[in-house]
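Message: Study each token:
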Amino acid sequence: MMLALGVPAILASVAFAAHVSTLMRAESDLQNALDFRAAAVEIA
């Protein structure tokens, strides 16, 4: 019984962590692109 309740909870936690990680990576990539653009505008 405990296994039947525990496994889905663990899988949900792993899926949530992966989703958050993906979102944080996307945010970091966006920030890097904006920083690069700002630097390019400064140079030009």
Observations:
- The helical segments are 2-43.
- The radius of gyration is 19 Å.
